[in-house]
Amino acid sequence: MQIFRKEVVGLLKDLIEMDEHELAMDLETPPNPEMGDFAFPCFKLAKKRRQNPAAIAADLAVKLPGSDYFERIEAKGPYLNFFCNRRLLAKTTVESILAQGKAYGQQEVGKGQTIVIDFSAPNIAKPFGVGHLRSTVIGNSLYRLYEALGYNCVGINHLGDWGTQFGKLIVAYLRWGDEQKLEKEPITYLYELYVRFHREAEKDPQLEDEARAWFKKLEDGDAQAKALWQRFRDLSLAEFKRIYKLLEVEFDSYQGESFYNEMLDEAIKLIEEKGLTSISEGALIVDLSEENLPPCLLRKQDGATLYATRDLCAAIYRQRQYNFAKMLYVVGADQSLHFQQLFAVLRKMGYQWAEDCVHVPFGLIYYKEGKMSTRRGTLVFLEDVLTKATELAKEIIREKNPGLKNKEDVARQVGIGAVIFGDLINDRIKNIEFDWDKVLDFTGETAPYVQYAHARICSILRKADSWPASYDATLLTNEEEQHVIRLLARFSDVIIRAAQTYKPSLVARYVVDLAAAFNSFYHRCPVLQAEEASRNARLALIDAVRQVLVNGLYLLGINAPEEM
Ligand code: ARG
Fold first, then answer.
1. What is the mean pLDDT of residues 310-331?
2. How far apart are CA 303 and CA 71, in angstroms?
């Protein structure tokens, strides 16, 4: 589509008083192909010229020089609609996909720029719940999207490995801890202790004070506290890494909250020196009333630091370390206030780059009875979800394709793909109700549906024993073929839009649409049975679809098995 877009700009630029960049930005994609491939809205010109937009569109349609790139250019109301030359569109699209392969869709707009993506960040000694799945899969997809745009991406797992909860755990472990249980099932057991702490603390509020005291000891470097903390951290991290391996998610850094311990004093000093701090009820705060925000707490009365203190320190550190063009925090919408405060303090400190920090929020996962809560013990363990989904995929495979080789691998790719996709297809900001049946439903708009279309193409290509030495893609002009081609041609636009709006859901929607377009094409147009010239062109077309499905699923963090 790129070259067609350039041609539109080239044709229009001499006829209208707008610069090329602005013109390109204003070009729209009509809602359906009967209205063309590009639409140029004349409202802006109408304002400038004080003329009726429809009259301008009609006038431009007459004045435009002819072009081989377009079959027709028509005025329709206030819009000027451009219809791509079908043959040329088919040829350039299919040929460039097959030539570029995995790189098709990639661009260089981000070249030389770094983007930091803070995502996943589960809390040590707590289970990896399905709530953290959201941050993990959205963050991972954004990482891959920005990489496709040429950015240098730095994925940071800001582990929740510091904070008052460690005081609670230490108290619980010292009171009720059982060494053997801890060794056997670390996170489940630590989680039990954590839930028990909260249950007992309701009866005995004294426990909370004790926990605070232990956390203070930890912050002051007490050896016993430190050793217990280290142990909990190591055990938890080993379990988390097992999940990341299943999900095929990687990080460039695991610098979590505790990493900043030694730097906190310096960061606080920096804020104090700028005259931004004050004391309120014994605590050190930054007043944000000018911003209409509650104050940001830096130090509690007992001297302990907070989540926000560590985030401030981390932001400053990362800016120095990576000199990022942008930093994304992929964190639930329930932390919006925290990030508003964080960015407000950074702005007050005079950091220009505070404008480049973005909170990418997402809706919560609701469990039937309400929000999942680590404290109440109503959390669904992610590992259970992944195992269940894989089991279900295995059952289906055994039933439908018992002869399949490497069943285990395929079942994993399908089951886990379904879980990832089931999350990403949702508009990020919406709350999702966690529903086992839905997560394990492989029909409809799901990863298995897309993966199945891909496997089907692979199977057709395998059956086409002789691969065409040459093909003529200009033959691909019927409605079904053109529908597929238009979608293929828009892939890089989808990547840009998904990255700009931080919405992997656009890519998820796109691959479903592409799989559906392929299915209806294949339903109506024979491939292997078609006469030779058409057979060759269609084989090239479906090979292009195969490639783009692979590339699209990759951007979501999902594999595409060749057989299933
Ligand atoms: N550990 C936090 C949580 O589970 C998320 C951390 C997000 N990242 C950050 N820089 N605050 O709520």
1. 98
2. 72
Tell me, what's the pLDDT at 373? 56
List the beta strands (DSSP E) in 96-211: 114-118, 152-156
Contact call for residues 442 and 415 (beta carbons, < 8 A): no
Question: Is there a contact between 236 and 124 (Cβ–Cβ < 8 Å)?
Answer: yes
Task: Enter the tokens of residue 121.
Answer: 């960040």
pLDDT at position 371, please? 54
Per-residue model confidence as pLDDT tens digits over 70-110: 999 999 999 999 999 999 999 999 999 999 999 999 999 99
What percent of the chain clears pLDDT 70, i.e. is strictly above it? 98
Q: Where in the chain is the domain with CATH 1.10.730.10?
A: 382-555
What's the CA-to-centroid distance between 554 and ligand 1, angstroms?
26
Alpha carbons 293 and 347: distance in angstroms, whole number: 13
Mean pLDDT, residues 213-233: 94
Q: Is any ligand 1 atom within 6 A of the Cβ of residue 158?
A: yes
CATH number, domain 382-555: 1.10.730.10
| CATH 3.30.1360.70 domain range(s) in the chain | 2-84
pLDDT (0 to 100) of residue 32: 86
> Which residue from 309, 317, 335, 362 has its CB within 8 A of the most atoms of ligand 1, so it is best to mutate?
335
pLDDT at 244: 97
Question: What is d(CA 453, CA 448) in angstroms, rounded to the nearest whole number?
Answer: 8
- Give me the architecture of the 114-360 domain, per CATH: 3-Layer(aba) Sandwich (3.40)
Counting atoms of ligand 1 from 1, which one is nearest the CA of 123? Answer: 1
User: What is the pLDDT averaged over residues 397-401?
Assistant: 91
Fold for the domain defined by 2-84 = Gyrase A; domain 2 (3.30.1360)
CB of residue 331 inside a 6 A radius of ligand 1: yes
Q: Classify residue 543 as left (phi > 0), alpha (psi -120 to 50) or beta.
A: alpha
